Amino acid sequence: LGYRGRSDRNLSPEPGTVLAVLGLETRSGHPPSKLSGGERQRVGVARALLGNPALVIADEPTGNLDVAATGELLKLLEQLRQDLGLTLIVATHDSAVAETMDRTVRMSGGRVIAA
Predict the structure, then answer these.
(1) pLDDT at 3
(2) Whole-angstrom distance, CA of residue 50 vs CA of residue 2
(3) What are the CA-CA distances from residue 86 to residues 58, 70, 89, 91, 107 (Å)?
(4) Cβ of 65: how many Cβ atoms within 10 Å?
(5) Domain named ABC transporter: which ranges (predicted)?
(6) Contacts for 18-24 with beta carbons within 8 Å, 24 or more apart?
(7) Domain that holds residue 29
């Protein structure tokens, strides 16, 4: 956050609120090595949400997750999209993940092949 020129006093929503929404409130003091893959992915989502952005770009947000954790994260992203009015752009190679999105744009070789 310091890299973005922000202090934790100027954040909206508050970090504690974001962690609670993501189910991480009891894990806030744990080092990354003690978090599961799903928890690490949710930490990434939490970082993206601090500062109340209008747009979140997620590159392979489910890439390292098992099927259950993928489903949980996708539900969470949809809930946050609805609750906070976020625009989400999700890049994925997983067709099952792509099918959960409102709109899909397919690319090949750096070119749009289907929209």
Answers:
(1) 45
(2) 12
(3) 12, 19, 10, 16, 23
(4) 21
(5) 25-62
(6) 18/46, 18/49, 18/50, 19/46, 21/80, 22/46, 22/76
(7) 8-114
Determine the 3-state secondary structure of 88 from DSSP.
strand
**Number of domain units in the chain:** 1
* Assigned domain for 83 exists: yes
Q: Are 28 and 19 in contact (CB under 8 A)?
A: yes
Q: Which amino acid is at 25?
A: E
CATH of the domain at 101: 3.40.50.300
Give per-residue pLDDT as tens, 96-113.
999 999 999 999 999 999
3-class secondary structure for 1-69?
CCCCCCCHHHCCCCHHHHHHHCCCHHHCCCCHHHCCHHHHHHHHHHHHHCCCCCEEEEECCCCCCCHHH
Question: What pLDDT does 13 receive?
Answer: 60
In this structure, the chain runs to a length of 115
Q: Which two tokens stand for residue 22?
A: 């993501």
